[in-house]
Every structure is written in structure tokens, then in C-alpha cells.
User: Fold this.
Amino acid sequence: PASAVKPEPAAKASEQSSRQQQPAPLPDRILGDPKAPVTLLEYASLTCIHCATLNNEVMPVIKKEYIDTGKVRYIYRDFPLDGLALKAAMLGRCLPEQRYHGFIDTLFQQREQWLTADGDLTPLKQLAALAGLGGKKAEACLNDKALEEGLLLQRLHASNQLKIDATPALLVGDTLLRGEKSVETLREVLDKALAKAGTSKSRKH
Assistant:
């Protein structure tokens, strides 16, 4: 199962750290101190159940211990696996930056409410409206071809430059983690990265 996959070196590991810093087709949405010594980069599809589990059960702990304390900066990038995930990602991108991560969290937490088999966007639009993007603004967002292209280019960038081929995918320096990961696994990887970056203590015990 995906959750059993061990951390593995990303393709061309010697180039990975510099590649991680390359700009994506869209401006990054960052949580935490922009100058934090370690960057945790996540690629996820909003319709992916494994991504939802990671973000609902694991990331709150990681955010509290590493991101909120200034040790790690967190970047979330969309890697839409289907049309509905793409539309959800577009709505998130049309919100003010300070509301972005909260909306992404809501989408993962309420995944079953808006993930419709027939592709009906009504439940998704309702959640966007609650976040402050409703009516004509939401329709304009969903019809924004430049934004849609940007998100698709972001996925292509991840595939070609970082060798991402599934979600969730987490990149810490030259370590690529595929699939669901436990809090313990992420702690181990982040602690090693922090130690390598010269941080004497990665987290309080």
C-alpha cells in the first residue's frame, strides 16, 4: 500500500534541492516563516482520499510542531487528478491569499460533501461562497482559462521537473515521499533536514 512506501531519493537527487526552489507556473501559497531553514513542499489533488487523510490527520500536528514554530515553511501545490479537483483548485486560487489554506483545509475535511459522481459543482460553489467567493465571482473564476492553464502547467512542471506522478507527494530537500505518511515518518524526515540545515533541536519534547 502507498502508506508503506519508504522515503526514497527523488530523481537526480543532486539537482533536487535547486529544483525545489525553481518557481512554479503559479505564485506559491506559503504557510510559516518564508525564511525557515527547511521547506516542506506538498503536491495534492483535492479529490484524492489519501491526500485528505494526510491533510486531516497528519498535517495539523506537523503544522503545530514545525510550521507554526518557524522551523519549516510549507508550500501547497495543486496536482489535480481530475476535472473536479481542477475546478476546486481554481476556486481556491481565486480567494484572497490569507483565506487560501483555510479553504483547502475545508475542502479536504468536507470532501464527501462536494465530491459528486456526476461532477455537479453546486456543493463546491456553496463552500466557496461561505469562504467569500460567491455568485458571479465564482462563475468568473471557474471560467478563467488562464488560471486553468496555470494549474495544468503546475502539474506538468511537477511531473517533468520533480518527477511527481501521484498524490500525495511530499518533497523535503532531496527526499521525495510518496503516498500517505505518518506523523512519525514526517518528523524523522524533517528532523534530519533541520539537523542538516544546522538546527540544533528540531522540536520540543
